[in-house]
Amino acid sequence: MGLLDSFEKGLERAVNSAFAKTFRSGIQPVEIAAALRSELDKKAAVVSRDRILAPNTFTVRLSPADEENMARLGGALTHELDTLVHQHAKAQGYSFPGPVSITVTRDEQLSTGTLRVDSATGQGGSVSWRGVVDIAGKRHPLVKARTVIGRGSDADITIADAGTSRRHVEILWDGTRAMVRDMNSTNGTKLDGNKVTEAALPPDSTVTIGRTDIVFHVIAQSAPPKPTMSADDATRIFDIRDGGGSA
Q1: Who's near 20: CB < 8 A, 6+ residues apart?
Q2: Cross-referenced SMART domains, in alphabetical order (predicted)?
Q3: Between helices 75-92 and 29-43, what is the axis angle to 10°?
Q4: What b/e readout covers 91-119, taking b as 16+ CB neighbours within 10 angstroms?
Q5: What are residue 195's phi and psi, to 5 degrees?
Q6: Total Cβ atoms within 10 A of residue 75
Q7: Distance from C-alpha of 72 to C-alpha of 75, rounded to nearest angstrom
Q8: Residues 58 and 73 in one domain
Q9: Terminal-to-terminal C-alpha distance of the chain
Q10: Left, alpha or beta for 93 (phi > 0: left; psi -120 to 50: alpha)?
Q11: Count of CB atoms within 10 A of residue 49's CB?
Q12: In a 3-state reduction of DSSP, which class is residue 50?
């Protein structure tokens, strides 16, 4: 039987990730487990329809007295906590961008019976987002701030579709936000079935030009390049996402 098995019924008692409530008898393993579960749930981010990204680096801060008590359990405690974090992530459908790391440390500012959990997502404590488009079964990363798509050889992504213009549509991507803009094409551009001139481009949405579907996704990566975009274009994306664009 593991250290946390006897506390299983108490795991539903969520502990605030910043400042936990005070326990008269000091922190118990179940409180740490509950705090980690709570942190996973609070920080999980929806990346796409089939992926929810969760933090993978955790620092559990305890008062000097509580840290001394937990230290007596040795590596068994962190092993149990690691197992619990993986089990909870699997049950909730969360995925991690890298290996899970849990560190229990002493914080002189905390009083006995109080804990704090800090977390980060990604390798090295950070994660960034990458825009990609899927066209005819092939994935194209958006490595530029402005990506032109059409049937012309001068387009950034060339598609074999006679129903599209040579430079039909462009995708603007600033590393966190995206926009689609029709480039005065002959047959127009649709976003999720609705004709648009320019519009904010949400993750997992479909842009249709001619007979071609362009599916936009945002995926996580540990150390991505961030496209360079002009201040005007970046402001335009922000304005459109807030409802100021045309359709």
Answers
A1: 27, 31, 35, 114, 115, 116
A2: FHA (SM00240)
A3: 40
A4: eeebebbeebebebeebeebebbbbbbbb
A5: -70, 135
A6: 7
A7: 9
A8: yes
A9: 60
A10: left
A11: 9
A12: coil
Question: Final residue of a domain: which of 105, 120, 135?
Answer: 120
The DSSP line for 61-101 is EE-HHHHHHHHTTTHHHHHHHHHHHHHHHHHHTEE-SS--E
112 and 154 inside one domain: no
The amino acid that residue 218 corresponds to is V
| Backbone phi and psi for residue 124, each to the nearest 5 degrees, phi listed first | 80, 10
* Full pLDDT tens readout for the chain, 247 residues: 444 444 444 333 333 333 344 444 578 888 899 999 999 998 888 777 677 888 888 999 999 999 988 888 877 788 888 888 999 998 888 888 878 888 889 999 998 889 999 998 865 445 567 788 999 988 898 988 999 999 999 999 999 999 999 999 999 998 878 999 999 999 999 999 999 999 999 888 999 999 999 999 887 655 444 555 555 555 555 454 454 444 4
Does residue 236 lie in a domain region?
no
CATH number (domain holding residue 194): 2.60.200.20
Range of the domain at 169: 127-222
**What residue has token string 């807030």?**
242
Please indicate, yes or no, if residue 228 is contained in any of the structural domains: no
